Amino acid sequence: MQKIAIIGGGASGFFLGANLAPSFLVHIYEKATVPLQKVRASGGGRCNVTHACFDPSILTEFYPRGSRELRSIFYQFMCGDTMQWFEERKVPLKIEEDGRVFPISDNSLDVVETLIKENIKRKTQVHLQETVKAIKFENQRFKLETTQATEIFDAVVIASGSSRQMWELLKTLGHTVVAPVPSLFSFNCRDAFLKELPGTVFRNAEVQILDSSFRNAGDLLFTHRGFSGPAILVLSAWAARFLAEKKYQFQIQINFLGKTPDEILQGLKNFKKKHPQQLLTHHFPFELTKKFRKEFLKALEIPQERKYADLSNAEMQLIADFLSLKKFDIDGKITNKDEFVTAGGVDLKEIDFKNMQSKLIPNLFMLGEVLNIDAVTGGFNFQACWSEAAVLATYLNRL
């Protein structure tokens, strides 16, 4: 095997190219005008390279789909290996409090330029604005028809991300594709209560999708259009198919404080006993913004100037229930087109995870989002790309 085509100029495709032996003739095909678009956009332009999780069995827990298959991959190439790879190439990294890993520069271009330089160094031929139109497997080799030419290759690696066109091509080669649905999205909500509260953040809120077993805890963010933040994004990943079936019309229940109604009620009673003359809008026994306190008191029709001494038991129960059991109607999803992630792709039963090779066609390999693998937010999707590409590179380099 000498000539290899990599279809897709994203994280997994460029990482594979960077790690292949120089003896291979490698071509990367990317239909966009610039490569590595998701890497550029990740983390708001900072690039969330990976996550500081160094136990493969724990790492797999962050993948709603593909956790079992990825375990053997992660035992071969882990987050620490990723960090070492970039740091050896003069991209120093930092670990933030939540475990996410970024370049110290907070600039995704450091990652992008390193991947491009490594491919230039090994003389990878990168074809930009060139789309693969057809793949034919003939006489144990592959004929690729692109918008520019027709080429013959010994091996083909599909690293095209969530490309419906590529999934259709793979179907013509006999592969099964699990219908893709969005993952990692925010919730659209038209509730008037949110109108004055964009930018409000709750630490360790609990969110449950009603009429289901799906729930999650984490930071919750009010936006101009509804709800976002890790609590929502992670929940959307685990419930991706359920919510697609619901056509994104559903109800959620939010516990803003992560405490039971009884715990909140008792906190209010204790505060009332100690500070009876304090005003509700000026002081509160739990950490909530003044603006949020003002809005929820308005919603409950409790006067803003009410003193704790004048707060009835019924009113305290209303507050406790609102803060722990508030329901909202969700009317659709909100996705970031630059960081779009899907649940779905090539059926994992058709892939040999010892080397990422198709079980149906020899020397056809697949990496990244083209497979039915996805992760929650935090650098985990990139880590799957790096690890899969590294394992494939090791396999090919040994041939």
Automatic annotation (TrEMBL):
<dbReference type="InterPro" id="IPR036188">
    <property type="entry name" value="FAD/NAD-bd_sf"/>
</dbReference>
<dbReference type="InterPro" id="IPR055178">
    <property type="entry name" value="RsdA/BaiN/AoA(So)-like_dom"/>
</dbReference>
<feature type="domain" description="RsdA/BaiN/AoA(So)-like insert">
    <location>
        <begin position="181"/>
        <end position="341"/>
    </location>
</feature>
<dbReference type="InterPro" id="IPR004792">
    <property type="entry name" value="BaiN-like"/>
</dbReference>
<dbReference type="InterPro" id="IPR023166">
    <property type="entry name" value="BaiN-like_dom_sf"/>
</dbReference>
<dbReference type="InterPro" id="IPR057661">
    <property type="entry name" value="RsdA/BaiN/AoA(So)_Rossmann"/>
</dbReference>
<keyword id="KW-0274">FAD</keyword>
<dbReference type="Pfam" id="PF22780">
    <property type="entry name" value="HI0933_like_1st"/>
</dbReference>
<feature type="domain" description="RsdA/BaiN/AoA(So)-like Rossmann fold-like">
    <location>
        <begin position="3"/>
        <end position="393"/>
    </location>
</feature>
<keyword id="KW-0285">Flavoprotein</keyword>
<protein>
    <submittedName>
        <fullName>Flavoprotein, HI0933 family</fullName>
    </submittedName>
</protein>
<dbReference type="Pfam" id="PF03486">
    <property type="entry name" value="HI0933_like"/>
</dbReference>
